[in-house]
Amino acid sequence: MKEIKDIIRAFDLAQQQGIKTALATVVHVEGSSYRRPGARMLITEDGKLTGAISGGCLEGDALRKALLAINEGKNKLVTYDTTDDDDAKFGIQLGCNGIVRILFEPIAAGNPHNPIELLKALTSLRQKGVVTTLFNLDNPGYTPPGTCVLHLDGTARSSLHLSDHSKSEIFAGAELALLEESPAIKSYAFDDGSFTVLFDFIRPALSLVILGAGNDAIPLADMAYLLGWQITVIDGRPNYATKQRFPKADKVLVARPEEVVPQLEIDQQTAFVLMSHNYNYDLKMLSLLLPQDDIRYIGMLGPKSKLNRMIAELGAGGTYLSPEDHQKIYGPVGLDIGAETAEEIALSILSEIKTIFSSRVCQHLRDKTTSIHATTHNVATQKEESLAFQNE
User: Does residue 115 have a cis peptide bond before it, meaning omega lies within 30 degrees of 0?
Assistant: First the structure.
């Protein structure tokens, strides 16, 4: 989501300066690739790049292809094939031994359904969505429709010019991707054309709520900002919870525990970290957060004995934790990376949150036997492995 927001900001700036732009999107990959389908990069006619479609190896050639698309005013599908190991002859040094197809789309600023406007509509709401992109693998000379449909929950925005039957089939594919919360690539053969379609499922940015505004919360907020997460810092102490101390936070609130939940928009992309260093504040917050069904992650700073004491006190007061409640609490918070300093602890916490919300099992990449990037097939497998790992 951060990359999309950066692209939107770069586009708006280019528009203010009267500079033409093109959007490059990875739409199809065979073999190994640095970025998965759905990765995007905005390219301006004066050579500025925002986002990434590779590890840096494609960007130079992508600039040339984007300028060609801008000058011709039409979409272009470009294939980069390095499976013969001799990628030096392409002049791009891809080095991944794969076939990557990139769609270049010049952005018509006056079109209310251009790809950037669809991305703007997606980011303006904290909703899951599917961005649909059409292209043709078998006919590279064909001008593809490109990124032309946005599906949100119960609504769709489209500039797709096909028959009603064709559109209904593609819309059904987008709705399925939204329901399954997983990206997909499908091929269609209609009377009015044959297409390969990328259904790119996109979640809202992670929302991190830091309950505690001590000095050790500052690097946590700063590092979450670099990830593009939405950050809220809350504390009961007005001299701690200030915008001056947390300039990169989206919200800084002074609130007692019972005032916190009504001020938040909690969804399944919201993570909480309790680090107020005030036992009673954290205990009260834990009791108020546990009943919230959408919460998947509550991190508790401090030793295991502190959490055990809290659970015992809640039980003594008549609040007994279910297995699901225990599942969402992570205490002590963070991954075991040997963290000592506040910055290292922040890295440990953010890494754990990313692992949980990506449904991954923490392991060395060198030990993986499957693709680094989750596919439609192994997303479910990763979730099952993660649950098994957490229940051990």
Answer: no
Please report, in tens digits, the pLDDT of each residue of the chain (392 residues total).
889 999 999 999 999 999 999 999 999 988 767 788 899 999 999 989 999 887 767 778 888 999 999 999 999 998 888 665 555 444 445 455 678 889 999 998 888 889 999 999 999 888 899 999 999 888 767 888 898 999 998 788 888 888 899 999 999 999 999 999 999 999 999 888 888 999 999 999 999 999 999 999 999 999 999 999 999 999 999 999 999 999 999 999 999 999 999 999 999 999 999 999 999 999 999 999 999 999 999 999 999 999 999 999 999 999 899 999 999 999 999 999 999 999 999 999 999 999 999 888 887 777 777 766 655 444 444 444 433 433 44
Q: How far apart are CA 277 and CA 302, in angstroms?
A: 8
Pairing of strands 129-135, 297-300: unpaired
Using CA atoms, how far apart are residues 380 and 274, in angstroms rounded to an integer?
Answer: 30
Across the beta sheet with 184-190, the strand order is 155-158, 146-152, 129-135, 193-202, 184-190
3-state secondary structure of 90: helix
CA dihedral 224, 226, 229, 233 (to 10 degrees): 40
Q: Provide CB contacts within 8 A for 247, sequence distance 6+.
A: none
Cβ–Cβ under 8 Å, residues 202 and 152: no
Nearest residue to 185 (alpha-carbon basis) of 349, 30, 368, 372: 30
End-to-end CA separation in angstroms for the chain:
32
Which tokens belong to 189?
């053969």
